[in-house]
Every structure is written in structure tokens, then in C-alpha cells.
Design brief:
- There is one protein chain.
- This protein is mainly alpha-helical.
- Helix content is 63%, strand content 10%.
- It contains three helices and two strands; from the N terminus they run H-E-E-H-H.
- A two-stranded antiparallel sheet has the order 1-2.
- A hairpin with a 5-residue loop joins strand 1 (28-30) and strand 2 (36-38).
- It is elongated, with a radius of gyration of 16 Å.
- The two termini are 31 Å apart.
């Protein structure tokens, strides 16, 4: 019973971290004069959603 409560608590805290921490990466890679690729919008949000808030929370927890 306590193992299930621990898993539920960790899941809830993980959801709170993802909803309360907002990080924006302003870097863009210019392809040509008209087009550029946003690192956060085109790469991180599509491949690893919420990786920045998770990594920030883990970094603060470890340090």
C-alpha cells in the first residue's frame, strides 16, 4: 500500500513541476534569409516535451 502511495505522490509532484516551471530558450538557428528553426519550439517541444522543466527541477534537487 505504501509503495502505491509513493508512486502516486511522485506522479503528482512530477505533474506539478511540469505545470509550474516555465523555461524559454530564445535560440534560433538560421537556415537562410527567410527561414529559421527555433530550438525550443521545433525541437525540444516536439521530441522531448517538458524536458527543460524536468532537467531544471532535477538540477535544483541534486545541487
Amino acid at each position: 500500500m505504501s509503495k502505491a502511495a509513493t508512486i502516486l505522490g511522485v506522479t503528482v509532484i512530477g505533474g506539478l513541476v511540469a505545470s509550474y516551471i516555465h523555461i524559454e530558450v530564445l535560440s534560433e538557428i538560421a537556415i537562410n534569409a527567410e527561414h529559421s528553426v527555433s530550438i525550443q519550439k521545433d525541437f525540444l517541444k516536439k521530441i522531448f516535451p517538458n524536458i527543460l522543466p524536468m532537467s531544471y527541477a532535477l538540477f535544483m534537487f541534486i545541487s
